[in-house]
Design brief:
- The chain is of the alpha/beta class and 256 residues long.
- It has a single domain, classed as Rossmann fold.
- It has helices at 4-13, 33-44, 75-92, 116-129, 173-184, 209-217, 227-236, 240-253, and strands at residues 50-56, 62-67, 108-111, 135-144, 150-154, 161-165, 188-197, 220-226.
- The protein has a 6-stranded mixed beta sheet with strand order 5-4-3-6-7-8, with helices on both faces. The protein has a two-stranded antiparallel ribbon with strand order 1-2.
- Helix 2 (33-44) packs antiparallel against helix 3 (75-92), helix 3 packs across helix 4 (116-129) and helix 7 packs antiparallel against helix 8 (240-253).
- 42% of the residues are buried.
- It is an enzyme of class 2 (transferase).
- It comes from Sporidiobolus salmonicolor (Yeast-like fungus).
- It holds the Pfam family Pribosyltran.
């Protein structure tokens, strides 16, 4: 049986997701423990990773929040982020690392260069600490013709079910390139895990970038934090002004 996240993504890949140009305010719900921990840490670190205000995105939109995952730049912060990634992965793939013959579960983690390299190594180590030992690998930007050679460092991808690790899917270009690398090496991408899903429409159409990736590649995208988690956290903390700004932004640009 597919995990809940995977089943939802499968429906999305078939175009079964209900699309609304102006989604209603999010229903009362609570963020997952791992999402809440990352949101709290992001606001309390010496350099705020999550900030509220008015920020101009590359798209030209004025966003009421900005998440800078590049500021997870210390051992302590990376450890916390790694734990949250591992929680999200185990939530989506509860049998991962237990039975190599289980065709629904990833066997290898792949982190596209460069930002995916420290993430994939740290996540593999954390999953192993929890008794789920998987191979991990990453790509070189330039192929080597000496030493071990090739463009892949780490576990071989050929014949393996692969989970791609990324931070934020922005335009979807990089994740499509990572998917192509896995395929070229003879692997099969069975899922993608990212840190943040902004849950907002792209420049064209009614789908978000994540939904477009799910539909194009036919795999589920697992997110550690979603915009709805941030809204739920703000509501629980009584931060009404920021919560209202987020919900107004979602009403204009959001997707279900």
């Amino acid at each position: 049986m597919l995990p809940v996240h995977a089943a939802a993504a499968a429906a999305a890949s078939l175009g079964l997701r209900s699309l609304r140009p102006s989604p209603p305010a999010l229903a009362m719900s609570s963020a997952s423990p791992y999402a809440s921990s990352i949101i709290s840490l992001s606001l309390s670190s010496s350099q705020p990773i999550l900030r509220f205000g008015s920020f101009t995105l590359k798209s030209g939109r004025q966003s009421p929040y900005f998440f800078n995952f590049g500021l997870f730049n210390s051992g302590k912060l990376l450890l916390a982020l790694t734990n949250a990634y591992a929680d999200a992965i185990l939530d989506a793939f509860p049998e991962i690392g237990l039975d190599p013959a289980d065709a629904s579960q990833p066997q290898v983690l792949f982190g596209p260069a460069y930002k995916g390299i420290p993430l994939v190594a740290a996540i593999a180590a954390e999953l192993a600490r929890r008794g789920r030992d998987l191979g991990y690998s990453y790509n070189r930007k330039e192929k080597k013709d000496h030493g071990e050679g090739g463009s892949i460092v780490g576990a071989a991808l050929a014949g393996q079910r692969v989970l791609i690790v990324d931070d934020v899917i922005t335009a979807g270009t990089a994740i499509r390139e990572a998917h192509a690398i896995v395929a070229r090496e003879g692997g099969q991408t069975v899922g993608i895990v990212e840190a943040l899903d902004r849950e907002e429409r792209g420049q064209d159409g009614e789908l978000s970038t994540v939904q477009e990736v799910e539909r194009a590649l036919g795999v589920s995208v697992v997110s550690v934090v979603k915009m709805r988690d941030i809204v739920a956290w703000l509501r629980a903390q009584g931060r009404d002004d920021e919560c209202t700004a987020m919900e107004e932004y979602r009403a204009k640009w959001g997707v279900n």
